[in-house]
Specification:
The structure holds three protein chains of three kinds.
Chain A lengths: L1 E5 L8 H16 L5 E5 L7 H9 L5 E5 L22 H9 L1 H9 L5 E7 L4 E5 L6 H4 L3 E4 L3 H9 L3 E4 L5 H7 L4 E4 L1 H6 L8 E8 L3 E6 H5 L3 H35 L3 E4 L2 H5 L3 H7 L3 H12 L2
Parallel strand pairs in A: 1-2, 1-3, 6-7, 6-8, 9-11
Antiparallel strand pairs in A: 3-10, 4-10, 5-8, 5-9
Helix pairs in contact in A: 1-10
Chain B lengths: L4 H36 L8 H22 L8 H4 L3 H32 L17 H23 L9
Helix pairs in contact in B: 1-2, 1-5, 2-5, 4-5
Chain C lengths: L1 H15 L3 H15 L5 H11 L6 H14 L2 H13 L5 H17 L2 H18 L4 H13 L8 H10 L7 H30 L10 H26 L5 H19 L5 H34 L2 H12 L3 H18 L2 H18 L4 H16 L6 H10 L3 H4 L4 H16 L2 H9 L2
Helix pairs in contact in C: 1-2, 2-13, 3-13, 4-7, 4-9, 4-12, 4-13, 5-6, 5-11, 6-7, 6-8, 6-10, 6-11, 7-8, 7-18, 8-10, 8-18, 9-16, 10-17, 10-20, 10-21, 11-12, 13-16, 14-16, 15-16, 15-17, 16-17, 17-20
The chains are: A alpha/beta, B mainly alpha, C mainly alpha.
The structure holds sodium ion (2 copies).
């Protein structure tokens, strides 16, 4: 049995790619070579959205995607994307390892997906030509956001001019001043070379939306229960490994952007957070979603 | 001249498709220009323009592809057919049209499958069903089948298919 | 096994005369069946392959090119080029090269270029006593420069074909193509001059004087400005590459309707209709190629090809030479867009391994494809040129060698001197 896993990252050393390979090693060991896992990164099997659909029709076994493209398919996955939901990366990890995290993963099942695990994607912060210390600094800023309703709403809540744009155009956009700012985690700020264009990375840490490891339910249901358990366990175990690699990657990226002249700015997050209630009111609009928000927030 | 009903139908559909494609193309153009306008003039970039432009361009393509089949606009190797005797050339040309029609049929069928599968999913920034992305496959597929059949019939009778609009 | 199904069925369908896009689609279907994968996947890849925002630049550049073709911009450019160098030996040939290059700059498509410039220049040259083969070769080769100009939709196609392997910015590629385009123009001028001297073509008119050149330039300027708008617009951050392409359409429309007043309603509709048909043809090819690309990734074709080539030689020079040869051979059979879409995922990784970046590779690819446009059995610009000149492909091949020489010299320079393509983009960083 060979499982194929898709990932869009170009680097073979990207933490999620390494984690998938790690999961493959675990599977091969524990099944005595019977189950293999082959990783196709660099988007070889398609975009995140496409691989999700491939899972749905059973044309692909596994995919590692950012949680955003699942938002339209399964509303519960919106919860961990919400702005300023978690207090810190450490707390985010504890919360997602808890029962609420498990509930969100399970919510994907009726749609045809087995949610195997959350991987880390760090915290996203705003970067621009100037420090963004208070919401006033963000007012009127032309900020690039991913093409999603939630991100546009967050930017609008900050009073910024949200400009949805594919990530490939952001470097030129920042360089030429087409957009004033963008927001992403440190490895992306470094990896896409955005730090060459704008120098101030203000730690707003407004979102800690994780990545998702999904399996096709169609494929999963066709496997013997013992193999199902093996796959679930290997996926869960790869999480700790991925987090370690992620922390290393972040430290490396931080050093690189600093060496490249970028400045890391600390901000008062509470002033930003105070502007978020309308976003919560619009997107967390059922008792179930509100309960999940509460459980995640109250995780110590 | 007595033009058969099937040819008249195909010609009308082809013209309708091409006119629709032109309308969609101009709409795509306006979407992108509106985006620039919004960013500079109103300092409020419309967030739906990009999604709509990307959706509409699929329709431009679908209509364009289908009309391309009818007006023989798709590029292929034809030089080898010239070397064959007349009788074989006709058979091969019929086969080529049949293969194109077959592909069109599969396109229509898959388009229908995906349209249904993605109908309940809202498209980000637009709110319309994600399935609308796949509807063009169904439209193009059906038109390709029709136009290929028209070509086969014309070949058989030694007639030519003329573009119905520009 | 699945790979054999893919390759053999594709070759067979092409030989049968199935249009390239449908041949790719049908061979993908056959492979899906052989691999026991759902057929619906082919069509998902197809739709997915078309949904990249930068793709919108393709219909826009195509549309702008069509408007310019029907809108009388070519006449002004011919007048300007003629006033500038019409008086030297083989002058009409030289001004044809210059005119095609300039029109290529605004239309960005070799085919539109040959159609527009060729229909003015080829009959004119024949009337002045030039041989038809010379007139056709000058036009079709000068037109190839259009593929490297900022309005070229083939540049966008390459950026998208490379997107899974390396991130290439549209603007970076536009800049990278400028100096090679200039070199190719100079090489074409040299070839046109060389043949003119050898055949003893006469000199005609005297130089009309700088004032006349200036007047002709002012006449051509509104059309030519579109290139400046695209470059300056992106460089200053006013718009993205895609938005600049949309602006090019409005500019072309404005110039032809309000400045030149030469675009009739009929021709406008014709341009719209042709743009839609071409968009359909090109985007279908792009979409369906992503199904092809899916199999190539699944069965690791790039890695295997790379290993195969490495087993022949480890020297970058030999590898680059082999890549050029393979691209040339494929380019003779396939259309430009198809060659770019099929070959980039296979050959870019290996070239990268030997130190050739995506920008340089892109230019190399485009020049190779351009060469293919003027090579039988399938050479679309050559076909159009021959049709206008009223000669056969066999006849045109007689004086083609100096022009091939010009292309090959440019290709060799781009392949082995990275600075030619990389200097400008590096400057703009
Ligand atoms: Na063009
Ligand atoms: Na060729």
């Amino acid at each position: 049995l060979t499982l194929r896993a898709a990932d869009v990252h170009n680097s073979n050393e990207y933490p999620t790619v390494l984690a998938l390979k790690r999961m493959g090693e675990l599977l091969e060991q524990r099944s005595a070579g019977r189950i293999k896992l082959k990783v196709f990164n660099k988007g070889a099997l398609g975009t995140e959205k496409e691989t999700i659909d491939q899972l749905k029709i059973g044309a692909l076994e596994l995919t590692r995607v950012h949680i955003s493209p699942m938002n339209a398919i399964c509303p519960q996955t919106q919860v961990p994307t919400m702005p300023f939901l978690f207090r810190s990366v450490a707390q985010m990890r504890r919360a997602l390892d808890g029962p609420a995290g498990e509930e969100i993963l399970r919510a994907c099942e009726p749609q045809g997906f087995i949610g195997l695990a959350f991987y880390d994607s760090g915290a996203r912060s705003i970067y621009a030509r100037k420090p963004i210390k208070t919401p006033a600094d963000a007012k009127g800023l032309k900020i690039r956001v991913p093409q999603s309703d939630l991100w546009v709403a967050v930017a609008a809540a900050l009073g910024a001019n949200a400009t949805p744009m594919p990530v490939g155009e952001v470097y030129t956009g920042l360089k030429t001043g087409l957009v004033d700012a963008a927001e992403n985690n440190l490895p992306s700020f470094e990896g896409f070379k955005h730090f060459e264009a704008v120098k101030f990375y203000s730690r707003t840490e407004h979102s800690m939306a994780p990545e998702l490891l999904l399996m096709s339910k169609k494929v999963y249901d066709g496997l013997p229960p013992a193999d199902q358990q093996l796959i679930r366990a290997a996926a869960k175990e790869s999480v700790a490994f991925q987090r370690l690699r992620w922390d290393e990657q972040e430290a490396k990226s931080l050093a690189l952007v600093k060496a490249g002249g970028a400045q890391i700015v600390d901000v008062d997050k509470s002033a930003f957070q105070a502007l978020m209630p309308p976003v919560y009111a619009r997107f967390m609009n059922t008792p179930e979603l509100q309960r999940l928000v509460k459980t995640l927030q109250e995780t110590p | 001249m007595n033009v058969p009903a099937f040819t008249r139908l195909c010609a009308a559909l082809s013209k309708l498709a091409l006119v629709s494609a032109v309308v969609c193309l101009i709409a795509v153009l306006l979407c992108v220009q509106l985006q620039v306008l919004g960013r500079y003039v109103f300092n409020d970039t419309p967030t739906w323009t990009e999604g709509l432009a990307m959706l509409l361009v699929l329709y431009v393509t679908a209509f364009g592809v289908a009309v391309g089949v009818r007006d023989a606009g798709h590029i292929g190797l034809e030089s080898l057919l010239v070397l064959l005797p007349e009788r074989w050339r006709l058979r091969l040309e019929l086969l080529v049209h049949a293969l194109v029609a077959g592909f069109g049929a599969l396109m229509a069928q898959s388009g229908w499958v995906w349209t249904q599968l993605k109908w309940s999913e809202p498209k980000p920034m637009l709110g319309v069903p994600e399935g609308l992305d796949y509807l063009p496959l169904l439209i193009a597929g059906v038109l390709i089948v029709l136009f290929s059949l028209e070509h086969m019939r014309a070949l058989w009778r030694g007639e030519a298919v003329r573009p119905s609009w520009y | 096994m699945e790979l054999w199904v893919l390759g053999l069925s594709f070759a067979l369908l092409l030989l049968l005369g199935v249009p390239v896009a449908f041949a790719i689609g049908l061979s993908s279907v056959a492979t899906m069946l052989a691999a026991d994968l759902p057929l619906a996947l082919v069509f998902q890849k197809m739709v997915g392959g078309m949904q990249v925002f930068s793709f919108l630049a393709i219909p826009f550049f195509v549309f702008a090119g069509e408007l310019m073709l029907y809108g009388g911009i070519a006449d002004r450019i011919v007048r300007f080029a003629n006033s500038l160098i019409g008086h030297v030996r083989g002058g009409l040939g030289m001004s044809n090269v210059l005119g095609c290059t300039l029109f290529g700059g605004v239309a960005g498509s070799p085919l539109a270029d040959v159609s527009a410039m060729g229909s003015v220049m080829i009959p004119l040259m024949k009337k002045e006593g030039y041989h038809a083969d010379y007139a056709v070769n000058v036009t079709t080769h000068a037109a190839l420069v259009g593929a490297l100009m900022p309005t070229s939709h083939n540049l966008i196609i390459f950026v998208l074909a490379a997107s899974g392997i390396a991130s290439v910015s549209v603007f970076g590629l536009i800049l990278a193509a400028l100096i090679p385009a200039l070199l190719l123009t100079l090489a074409n001028l040299a070839a046109a001059y060389g043949v003119a001297v050898r055949r003893g073509y006469p000199t005609h008119d005297a130089f009309p004087g700088w004032a006349a050149v200036g007047r002709a330039f002012v006449g051509a300027l509104p059309g030519l400005l579109v290139v400046v708008i695209i470059l300056a617009g992106i460089l200053s951050g006013v718009f993205t590459a895609t938005e600049s392409a949309a602006t090019a359409v409005f500019w072309a429309l404005g110039v032809t309707v309000f400045v030149y007043r030469s675009l009739s309603w009929q021709n406008f509709l014709k341009a719209c209709a042709k743009a839609c048909k071409t968009t359909g043809v090109v985007l279908l090819l792009i979409g369906i190629s992503s199904a092809f690309g899916y199999f190539m990734a699944l069965y690791e074709v790039p890695q295997r090809t790379g290993e195969l080539m490495q087993s022949v030689s480890q020297s970058p020079w030999v590898i680059f030479l082999m890549v050029n040869l393979l691209l040339f051979v494929l380019g003779t059979f396939l259309d430009m867009a198809a060659t770019i879409l099929i070959c980039t995922p296979i050959f870019l990784p290996i070239c990268q391994q030997y130190g050739m970046g995506p920008l340089q590779f892109g230019i190399l690819m485009l020049i190779n494809c351009a060469l293919g446009l003027n090579t039988p059995p399938v050479g679309s610009t050559q076909f159009v040129g021959c049709a206008i000149g009223g000669i056969s492909v066999g006849q045109v091949m007689r004086s083609i060698w100096p022009f091939y020489g010009a292309l090959l010299a440019t290709l060799a320079l781009v392949t082995f001197v990275p600075a030619i393509s990389l200097w400008l983009p590096a400057l703009m960083k």
